[in-house]
Structures are given as C-alpha cells and as structure tokens.
Amino acid sequence: MKQYSRRMSLAKKEEAECLVKEMMDNGIIGESSGPSVSPIVLVKKKNGSTRFCVDCRKLNEITIKDSYLLPRIDETLDAFNGSQWFWTLDFKSGYWQVEI
C-alpha cells in the first residue's frame, strides 16, 4: 500500500528533513524497505514547536484487529490489595521511548 506525500512549503519540507535527520541520528527511526508508505504531517504545538506525525489512516483501514477482552477495573484494583509500592512512568516524548 503506497500513498503519495502531501504538498508542503519549502520551509516545512526543510523542517521535516531536519526532524527526520534528528530522529535517525537518535536511533528512533531508520531506513525502510517495506511495501507500505504513509504520508507525514507537521503539526504546530501550542508552544510553537513542531510535532512530526504519520498519517496511518489507510494502513489502519486494512489492519486486522486482534480480539481480546479488557480486564475488569475492579479485578485490576483487587490485584493491588496489600501492595505497599505504586509507581508511574513519566516519559518525555513517550511515544519514541517505548520500543516495540
């Protein structure tokens, strides 16, 4: 499944190339030789920085979803009974920090 890239201004194209280079240098992304390509979208955040997004809607349309039951919240909370320690994780750019 291949899609065409979206048109963007020269300034946005340069910004996208800079973001791609930064992510490649940090080992977040790499070269792809797969059969599918999804277009990128640059979105301005409230603080003025740019969020690099990939438009995967076409890929999502053809993805076969796994079927499984979600755990009941009361059973999950019961599993914490007697626990003394609880913790949370706070990721900066968390999407990139959890390897799949």
Automatic annotation (TrEMBL):
<feature type="domain" description="Reverse transcriptase">
    <location>
        <begin position="43"/>
        <end position="99"/>
    </location>
</feature>
<dbReference type="InterPro" id="IPR043128">
    <property type="entry name" value="Rev_trsase/Diguanyl_cyclase"/>
</dbReference>
<dbReference type="GO" id="GO:0071897">
    <property type="term" value="P:DNA biosynthetic process"/>
</dbReference>
<dbReference type="InterPro" id="IPR000477">
    <property type="entry name" value="RT_dom"/>
</dbReference>
<dbReference type="InterPro" id="IPR053134">
    <property type="entry name" value="RNA-dir_DNA_polymerase"/>
</dbReference>
<protein>
    <recommendedName>
        <fullName>Reverse transcriptase domain-containing protein</fullName>
    </recommendedName>
</protein>
<dbReference type="Pfam" id="PF00078">
    <property type="entry name" value="RVT_1"/>
</dbReference>
<dbReference type="InterPro" id="IPR043502">
    <property type="entry name" value="DNA/RNA_pol_sf"/>
</dbReference>
